[in-house]
Amino acid sequence: MTGPRSPTFDSAYPVPFHIERDAGPRRYxxxxxxxxxxxxxxxxxxxxxxxxxxxxxxxxxxxxxEVSISGRDLARSTVxxxxxxxxxxxxxxxxxxx
Length: 98
Fold this sequence. Notes:
mainly beta, three-stranded antiparallel β-sheet, 7 strands, 4% helix
C-alpha cells in the first residue's frame, strides 16, 4: 500500500499586472508588466461598484487597459477580479482591493 501523494508545484508565477490608481477619478489603468502576452483578460466586480462591460482583451508586455469604476467607498464595498490566460493556456485570477 502506498501513502498519500504529495502535490507537485511549479515555481511561483508572479502576477504580471500593475494597477495605477492615480489615473484620475474613477479611472484605473491595468498594465501588463510581465515578459509574455496575456490573453482573455477579463475584469469583473464583486460588491457595490459599477463599471462598463467590455470584451476580454489580449495585452502584450507593456500594454495597458483602461477601466472606469464608480461607486461609493470602493475600498469597503468593492473588489476587482482580473482573469487571464498565459500562452500555455493556464487560467489565473487576481483579486484587487481598492
